[in-house]
Amino acid sequence: MKLFAGILAGLTLATAVSSSSWVEGVFEHLQSARTNAGVAVLERRSSLDEAALDYARKVAAMPHSRRLTRDRPIDRDLEEAGIGSFRQATLHLDMGRGYSDYGEKFSRSWTKYKQGWKSATAERFDAVGLGTATGDDDWVVFVAILIDDINVPTDLHALERRTLEGINEIRVEHGLKPLHYHEGLTVAARQHSDKMARLDFFSHAGADGSTLEGRAKRQDLEFQSIAENLHTSLGYDDPVSVALDGWMESKDHRKNILDGKYTHTGVGVAIDEDGRALFTQLFMLPKPGG
């Protein structure tokens, strides 16, 4: 059930319902259903609770006839709440008035809503937040927000090693010699990936206008020929495989990988603030004695 959010300024008609026991009952119902479905239980996050509460307050403050017609995706509300790094988010909204047991009411209606309940018990979601508020007309609004996290790699050197290993496997499969690890190339590659991550750009040209050749000379590299492959991706569990597949499907990138004249390489990986992986791989034929 995709609902949409709008900005409501200066409205104070809705009052928040405290973390009632019935809300916890709905949460336990959800977790039990996921366990029975053979998928991992959800992490309950305070930041998502706050976002769900804010959403519930805004809905409760609206005239009842407009409560199901908000005008923008839930992603926008999450981004404004500082929750911007996720692969997917979904929202469940329900409301009722005059029930003696809201936990039982909202658990039952959520379960009966086949599409929404299918999402709630889907393996892809990692975390949930719950919130509720009551409007001045005594309608109780219940909101659940579920998100699918972006898996952000933390061991960047492991990604670099796996990239080099994968490139060499590809070269050997094509009858070529593997490339040798080169410290100076690795430093240059890491610096370029780091700058792309910090300064939010993606280009063979540096943010200062530098060229690949210029950056290599800063590392005192002596080369007859040098080339560079770049890749960026977001949200993949295995960004190395995505990078390798992407390069091999691109004519120019594939040419660099399978160019027999290159003998040395360096790989640098960085992660930007949004969790995006940025890969730089350099290929070099050194000058004799270089």
Summarize this, please?
40% of the residues lie in helices and 22% in strands. By secondary structure, it is an alpha+beta fold. The relative contact order is 0.14.
Write a structural description.
The protein is of the alpha+beta class and 290 residues long. Helix content is 40%, strand content 22%. The protein has 10 helices and 9 strands. The strands form 2 sheets. Strands 1, 2, 3, 4 and 5 form a 5-stranded mixed beta sheet that branches. β8 (264-271) and β9 form a beta hairpin. The longest helix has 18 residues, at 156-173. Residues 1-19 have low confidence and may be disordered.
For this entry, give a set of tags.
five-stranded mixed sheet; four-stranded mixed sheet; alpha+beta; disordered N terminus; elongated; 290 residues; 22% strand; 10 helices
How do the SSEs run, as a string of H and E? EHEHHEHHEEHEHHEHHEE
Number of strands: 9
**DSSP summary: helix tally:** 10
Poorly predicted runs are 1-19
Strand content: 15-25%
In helices, the fraction of residues equals 25-40%
Estimate the mean pLDDT confidence: 88
Helices, strands, pairings?
Blueprint: E1 15-16, H1 21-36, E2 43-44, H2 46-60, H3 74-80, E3 86-96, H4 102-112, H5 114-120, E4 127-134, E5 140-149, H6 156-173, E6 180-181, H7 183-199, H8 212-218, E7 223-233, H9 239-248, H10 251-257, E8 264-271, E9 277-286
Parallel strand pairs: 2-4, 6-8
Antiparallel strand pairs: 1-4, 3-5, 4-5, 7-9, 8-9
